[in-house]
Write a structure and sequence with these properties.
The chain is of the alpha+beta class.
Length: 214
């Protein structure tokens, strides 16, 4: 879906294709770093053994963290990476600029940090608090949000947040899903159908901590 032109004074409209490319590249870098560490933990002991080092406990020990790091990485990919979900949202909703986003808290989980935030814009009241997770698996809160962010979606259901400049992307869901049930029920057939097409109509995420906070 095409982006809605920004009002005067807002950042240039971001390219959805560029946003997705930057986030896939970020995921590749994250995985490359993990694979490099695993290769070192496995490769160094094997090289020492071939060089004649005795087969001792200390030579085998690095294999243990290597196995756990591999399992942890696979789990992060399965549960935390949400690039496909974000791409689906961006395909159905335009990007709209919101002038302010404030991080209210952060929850550490094994598959990524879950952030709670308040998104607002001039002349608009009653926007719900949201929870989000970095779509590419990063844990840190993205820089540049103090200057406003781009949002695609319907905040009664969820959506995607894109930070101008870095193109960091968070997958969003209402912080209190049940509280917003009346808004979703009154949204109308067109909004509900669009949310269904974008995959944000249910709180059926793989990991409910993003909805319940624990």
């Amino acid at each position: 879906m095409s982006e809605i032109p920004p009002e005067p004074g807002t950042p240039d409209v971001v390219s959805v294709e560029r946003v997705m490319k930057d986030n896939y590249n970020a995921l590749v870098k994250l995985l490359a770093g993990r694979i490099a560490v695993i290769a070192i933990l496995v490769g160094v002991p094997m090289a020492l053994y071939r060089a004649g080092a005795p087969n001792s406990f200390f030579l085998v020990l690095p294999f243990v963290p290597a196995v756990f790091l591999f399992i942890f990485t696979v789990y992060r990919l399965w549960a935390g990476v949400r690039l496909v979900q974000c791409q689906k949202v961006l395909r159905h909703y335009p990007l709209r600029f919101h002038t302010r986003v404030v991080k209210k808290g952060s929850l550490w989980t094994v598959y990524g940090n879950v952030f709670e935030m308040k998104i607002s814009t001039r002349g608009e009241q009653g926007l719900p608090s949201m929870k989000g997770i970095n779509a590419a698996g990063r844990r840190r809160w993205p820089e540049g949000t103090e200057n406003g962010v781009w949002i695609a979606g319907d905040l009664a259901f969820g959506g995607v947040m894109v930070v101008p400049g870095s193109n960091a992307m968070l997958f969003l869901n209402p912080a209190d899903w049940d509280k917003l049930a009346p808004r979703r029920e009154q949204a109308g057939a067109e909004r509900i159908a669009l949310a269904e097409q974008a995959g944000i109509n249910k709180k059926n995420w793989r990991k409910p901590v993003l909805l319940w906070g624990g």
